[in-house]
Amino acid sequence: MNRLKIAVTKGRLLEDSLDLFEQMGFDCSEVRADTRKLILPISNYPMDVVLSKAADVLTYVSHGVCDLGIVGKDTIMEHGGSFYEMLDLGFGKCRFALAVPDGSDFYGTYQNRVVASKYPNVTKAYFAEKGMDVSVIKIEGSVELAPLVGLSNGIVDIVQTGTTLKENGLTPIETVAPVSARLIVNTASMKLHQAEIFDLMDRIEAVIK
Ligand code: PRP
After folding, report:
1. pLDDT tens string 175-188
2. Is the Cβ–Cβ distance between 75 and 146 less than 8 Å?
3. Contact 162 CB / ligand 1 (< 6 Å)
4. Residue 114 and residue 127: Cα distance in Å, rounded?
5. Which end of the chain offers a freer environment for a tag, N or C, measured as fewer CB atoms within 10 Å?
6. Domains of the chain in sequence order
7. Mean pLDDT across the chain
8. 0.90 exceeded by pTM
9. Residue from 159, 161, 171 to probe ligand 1 pocket by mutation (most atoms less than 8 Å from CB)
C-alpha cells in the first residue's frame, strides 16, 4: 500500500487533528513526541504527517508533494490553490468578522473607509461583493492595533471567543464568513491513490459524523 503524506497545520489545528486521528485508532505517539522532526509517521497506518505553516499546507498539496492537507478555511479563502476541498472536519471553528471601534458608525460616512486585515484578499472580495469602495491595508501582526492607532476605520479578522476584540475596544458588526478546518486533496493523488484516500476519508467520516 502506498504511504500517504498529509500536511497538517501546526498550532491549534494540529492538536485537534491528532485528537481526530486518535479517535480513528491511529497511533500518533511519534507525532506527539517532543522532537524537532518535521515529517513523522503514524505507526499503525500507512501515512506520514508533515508539520507545516497554514499557507505552506496549500503549497505542498497544490504541488503534489503532499497528497492531503488539513488547513483552515480562512487560509484557503485568502490564498486559494489547485486542490480538492473534500471535508469540513468540524473543528477549528471561528469566523471572519468585520469589527469597528465600540460605538463608531462604519457605514455612516461618505468618506473613504480604510480596513486593515491579515487577509487582504478576503477583505477586498467581501467589500467588492457589496459594491463598496474600501481601501484595504495589509497588516502582519495584531491587526486589532490598526484602528486603535488611527490607521483604519475597522478590521476584518478571525474571531473565536471575541475576547481579543472586547479587550481592545472593538465590536464585531458583521460576519464575513464562517471558518473551520478542511481536508484538502491533491488532484493527481486523488486519481493515483484513490483507494488509500477513500479509505482515509471513510475512517474520518465515521468519526466526525
Ligand atoms: C487570532 C486572531 C485574533 C484572535 C481572536 O489570532 O487574529 O487576534 O485569534 O481570538 P479570540 O476571538 O478568541 O480572542 P491568533 O491567536 O490565531 O494568532 P495570530 O495573530 O498569529 O494569527
Report:
1. 999 999 999 999 99
2. no
3. yes
4. 11
5. C
6. 4-92+180-208 (3.40.190.10), 94-178 (3.40.190.10)
7. 96
8. yes
9. 159
